[in-house]
Design brief:
- The protein is of the alpha+beta class.
- The chain contains 22 helices and 23 strands.
- The strands form 7 sheets. Strands 6, 7, 8, 9 and 14 form a 5-stranded mixed beta sheet that branches.
- Strand 6 and strand 7 form a beta hairpin.
- The longest helix is centred in the first third of the chain and has 43 residues.
- The radius of gyration is 40 Å and the shape is elongated.
- The N terminus is likely disordered.
């Protein structure tokens, strides 16, 4: 090796030795920087934000799958949420909005996640906004969330849950046409057993003894007491304060655990006062709340039927709202959010209290479902709607669907007048008649000397079945149905009586059914209200729409063929004949005053025992009053319903 080469190699080796430490140092710095940057990135990326967002979504929806939880499972967390939020979730139309506000460092390496909640409260309760905080714990697999009760709402303890309630203002009343209170808040006593005040071994015997004293079902109440919670007050009966002397309360006080609570509930003036018209309000059940999509909450009053249901908002006003934290151990609560209610106002009906009382009195001795409806033809006002004792739970006057019998001949008469008959037209009235192989007869009460040829006017006056049905080929079923429509049959039920049945005539009936319809049997159906409407339309000279709410203008239905003046005059004359010489003469022939028109009706039916029975009907009008009387299981119209209608008509004329 030459000296020159050796010299060069030595210099190169020294240079490498000098640069080596520098390269290693620079590399180390780069690696350390990269490591530091990685941990900074990791720290920033894993500060609990992702877990907080997942938890916020779960708090809003109730689905905790995919959320890491500390000491619990997704299924248990969902149940905890359901329990803590109580009826707030069911009452709200949609899930709450839950957003992460911030995530900050906590003690011992934890993170504190703050959430902004927003609920849309039901019944115009507005929005409810608040913040809560959840602790996120570090672990080998990331962060896990603790679900304390106050994660769901501010300051909740383990014994508390949320409860949404309506705050109801002063309720209005339903009044009669003169402003007298018929339905509204009444003082009541709620009677029952407080299970905390009686030994478990004595609870069944106490329940049975109390039920016996109050006249309720002992087996049912004993079972109710047994199934109730250990600390529950179990209601047995609610009575009016005015009726307290009707019950042996002094004896009830000796029953172990007996307790009574004083309260106020919306009730009618008396239990039997026009129940099918007034209807009722009651406190919403859990089922009502669940089905309402947020429009009903616990404590709300909901309507079951009648004017009370139709005018619920007016009577109740605008309920306020309270969200409370309820301690299930102590029963105490604290308000977290509330809005004030507005009071309800009165609703005036068309009812006449004195006439209603008289109608109820007249029909009180009937032992079958029965009804009286009184109307004012000029306005359609329902002045009274009374039910017989056995019909109190079923308002037959409004919703009953019965064959109207010969009262429907008022409709048949109009169809025949339109077909060209006059009151003097000669008709045949045989004792029996055959239509397409089916035999029909007249009522057994009809004077047999009348059988044979008679005028159309006499056929209506004496209610000849065969004379009417033998005209079935003169009037089509469509024309019969059209006449019924002209007289108000089948129209929409009035506001406040949405469940009322306004009658039906199928325009497609033919043959034997059509012939039967002509005499009010067949498949024709009516209620006392609908037949009162028929006679009101005849007396008024135009189609009448019933009305029960005084501020609601009765709008007569549009009909294809309105009643003409000539038709009304002839119809009134035909129906006056029933009073002067026909089936109503014995009852109304001696009643003085203005002209009386009307019609009797007797419809055959088979009762629940399979025995043949009779529906008894009378519709009668005098001046500006129409009375419809009905007895489900009665005798002939003139003999059973007739006396009822007469007494009510006389009372109505005194009112006039």
């Amino acid at each position: 090796m030459s000296p020159t080469a050796s010299s060069t190699g030595a210099a190169t080796s020294d240079s490498h030795r000098r640069r080596g430490p520098w390269i290693v140092g620079i590399a180390a710095v780069v690696v350390l920087a990269l490591i530091a940057a990685f941990f900074v990135w990791r720290a920033r990326a894993d500060d609990g934000s992702d877990e907080a967002k997942a938890l916020a979504s779960a708090l809003a929806s109730g689905d905790f799958e995919g959320v890491s939880l500390d000491g619990t499972t997704a299924k248990k967390a969902a149940k905890q949420r359901e329990k803590v939020l109580g009826n707030l979730s069911d009452s709200s139309a949609k899930d709450p909005s839950v957003e992460v506000d911030k995530v900050v460092k906590g003690e011992n390496g934890t993170r504190q996640a703050t959430f902004d909640w927003s609920w849309d409260l039901p019944r115009k309760g507005g929005s409810w906004e608040y913040t809560t905080t959840a602790t996120l714990k570090p672990g080998d697999d990331g962060w896990s969330a603790e679900l304390a009760p106050d994660v769901f709402a501010p300051d909740l303890t383990a014994d508390e849950h949320l409860d949404v309630r309506a705050v109801v203002g002063q309720m209005g009343s339903i009044t009669d046409r003169e402003g007298k209170d018929l339905y509204g808040p009444r003082d009541v006593r709620i009677l029952g057993i407080d299970k905390t005040q009686v030994d478990a071994s004595d609870q069944e015997s106490a329940a049975r003894k109390l039920a016996g004293l109050l006249g309720t079902d002992a087996d049912a109440y004993a079972a109710k007491v047994k199934s109730a919670g250990d600390k529950d007050f179990v209601q047995a009966l609610t009575i009016r304060e005015t009726a307290k002397d009707d019950y042996p309360l002094s004896q009830a006080a000796d029953v172990p655990g007996f307790h009574e609570q004083k309260d106020s509930q919306p009730l009618a003036l008396t239990r039997d006062f026009a129940p099918g018209v007034l209807g009722s309000l009651r406190e919403a059940t859990e089922e009502d709340v669940e089905k309402s999509d947020g429009t009903v909450v616990a404590g709300d009053m909901v309507g079951d039927s009648g004017v009370a249901a139709a005018e619920r908002d007016t009577l109740v006003g605008t309920p306020g709202m309270q969200v409370a934290a309820v301690n299930q151990k102590t029963g105490k609560d604290r308000t977290l959010k509330s809005t004030d209610p507005s009071d309800g106002t009165d609703v005036t009906t068309t009812l006449d209290t004195d006439l209603q009382d008289e109608a109820t009195k007249v029909i009180a001795d009937q032992d079958s479902a029965s009804a009286v409806v009184v109307m004012k033809p000029s306005t359609g006002d329902v002045l009274a709607s009374a039910l017989g004792p056995s019909g109190q739970s079923y308002p037959v006057g409004m919703v009953g669907q019965y064959a109207p019998g010969s009262t429907f001949k008022a409709v048949t008469a109009l169809s025949l007048l339109r077909a060209g008959d006059t009151p003097d037209t000669t008709l045949e009235c045989p004792g029996t008649a055959n239509v397409e192989g089916r035999s029909f007869k007249n009522a057994d009460s009809m004077d047999k000397s009348l059988f044979g040829t008679m005028s159309f006017s006499d056929a209506i006056a004496h209610s000849c079945n065969t004379a009417m049905l033998l005209q079935y080929d003169k009037v089509s079923q469509g024309e019969l149905a059209d006449a019924a429509t002209t007289l108000g049959v089948g129209q929409d039920a009035p506001k406040g009586l949405e469940g009322a049945f306004m009658g039906s005539v199928d325009p497609k009936d033919s043959g034997v059914e059509h012939a039967s319809d002509m005499m009010g049997q067949g498949r024709v159906l009516a209620s006392p209200l609908s037949m009162a409407t028929v006679l009101s339309s005849i007396q008024n000279g135009s189609t009448v729409a019933p009305r029960v709410i005084a501020d609601e203008k009765a709008k007569a239905p549009e009909v294809e063929h309105p009643l003409t003046k000539d038709e009304a005059t002839q119809m009134q004359g035909l129906l006056h004949g029933t009073v002067t010489r026909g089936t109503l003469k014995s009852q109304f022939g001696d009643v003085g005053g203005k002209q009386i028109i009307g019609k009797t009706g007797t419809a055959e039916w088979t009762n629940e025992d399979g025995d043949p029975s009779l529906h008894s009907w009378v519709i009668v009008a005098q001046g500006d009053v129409v009375v419809a009387a009905f007895v489900e299981d009665g005798g002939y119209g003139a003999t059973t319903a007739g006396p009822i209608a007469k007494e009510v008509l006389k009372a109505a004329q005194k009112e006039e």
